[in-house]
Structures are given as structure tokens and as C-alpha cells.
Design goal:
Length: 84
Amino acid sequence: MGLARGKGPLTYRGTLIHIYPDLPAELSKLWSTFNTVKVRLQDSKVDYSLYYPAILAINLNIVWHTFNFPQAVEDFCRANITLV
């Protein structure tokens, strides 16, 4: 992965190729639990990141708040941010 990043864009016969790490299905399921709230954060222009294994961080007034569960994010946003 590191070598691929250092080489720049990878193409085959003019088509761009993306290389992604092979992640367990359980991790993908955990990440997908945050999909709904991530869309709402994007629509509301709120800066966020999703970290391994499944921690969503929201930047609010230059302070990062981290959450392990989607419902905790929803509760925090309801109290502190108006989401679309």
C-alpha cells in the first residue's frame, strides 16, 4: 500500500486503478452503522473523520469529539449541532 501511494496514480490501459486494504466484513459492518449520520454531517458541512476500528470524530469549534456508537453521535448533534 505504501509503495502504491508513493508511485502516484496507477493506470492500466488508460484506466485508473484503486488499491484498497482488505478489511474484515465485521469492520465493514461497523463502519456502515455510521453511514446515516455521516451523510447528515456531510450535508451540514460538519468536519468529521472515521477512525479504525469504528470511531467517528466530529470537529466542533476546533475541538474533536469522538464516538463509538452512531446513537451517541446523534445525541451529541441533537444537543450541539443543527443537522440537515
